[in-house]
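**Backbone geometry record:**
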Amino acid sequence: MTVPRTICLGFLMVITVGTLLLMLPFSTANGSWNSPIVALFTATSAVCVTGLSIVDVGTFYSFWGQLFLLFLVQIGGLGYMTATTVLLLILRRRLGLRDKIAIQQSLDVEGLSGLSGLLQSIIATTLLFEITGVLLLMPIFLPQFHDRPGLALWQSIFHSINGFNNAGFSLLPDNLIQYASNPALVGIMTGLIIFGGIGYQVIMEAYLWGRDRLKRLPCKPVFSLNFKVATSTTLFLLVTGTIAFFMTEFRNAQTLEGMDLSEKVLAAWFQSVTTRTAGFNTIDITKMTSAGLFITIALMFLGASPGSTGGGIKTTTLRVLVNCTKAVLQGKEEVLCYHRQIPTALLFKAIAVFMGSIATVLIATILITLTDPGVDFIRILFEVVSAFATVGLSAVGTANLSVPGQLLLIPIMYIGRVGVLLLVGALLGDSKPSFVNYPEENLLVG
């Protein structure tokens, strides 16, 4: 039982428990037993913080079903090892070496020291953002549910937790389309999504920098390379995505054309943010232009940052690959980023993540094309990338896919959450070191 196998089997265990809970009669609104396929799909989507659903969770599930769904989203956002370790700390059990290595790999951090403090910081950060989101969303939902303040509170809790964990489930029938021109809701939800997708380490560094600035300490702040790459790449993708959506959907009568200029910018901004693994939408995704769908696919595939609740190949992987290409074009033998040399092992890892992700998406797209030949190719590709990158947006309506197509999306969501490399490591086991060196030989490339 290697560490990757522990993490992968842990997610499977949580999905299994969630499926059984969502199948119970009191989890559904009509009080009947839930379909195993619907329960399995919803539980997988929740644990993998995807947000895809083949039923309307706001009307199909009862309060208890929605509560179970929320717990699964929270566990999936934190990660199986993080949630399990927090439970061990609450029970005052000491972490063994195996536990620390598992946490290190699941959080993608270096070193084994200070992991207990890091976990406590992660929990505190999560609660801080989610509680703040609830308090800020209450005044927005209260006018709509003025006669039922309890429901307004539940809407705030549900959307805040789903927003920070980049899950994308909504209890509203049209997701957030009715709030497309509401600057307050757009600002709150995009803030939760961005902070949830930027990574806990980045948030911690920003907090420490702000604390030192308030104390007016004389030391010069030194940000890590991960902080610089994650923040700069995220900002670039957000701005670029907003401009791209604004231009491609500006004349689309079914999305942005009927809005005034400020509303168009607001909707384009929200779409740029939510495509980076969140899954909420303020415009009808099924009515977007082909160019808009393709831009969405690209942004979903890139995803959020490491150590976050988001999916995709991650912003740092993109930056490493871009800088690697830049180094080759400039004729350099080392890859640099912010005057730091990228280790060769990290280059190999970035290439492996990219190639593994491409292979997974291509195979899944081909298979679903065979099970659902009547659906446009770009919409099938959209659905697969949305599932793999744990986004939750749908251009065809997941419920409109055939049962085999829906079943194929389940392992895709799982692979996207645990990661391609971690899953391969779990299947193959620990690699054995080789003491044999082979001679080098050149070949034609490009």
Observations:
- Residues 325 and 335 are 9 Å apart (CA to CA).
- The chain has one domain: 3-428.
- The chain has 18 helices and two strands.
- Residues 3-428 form one domain.
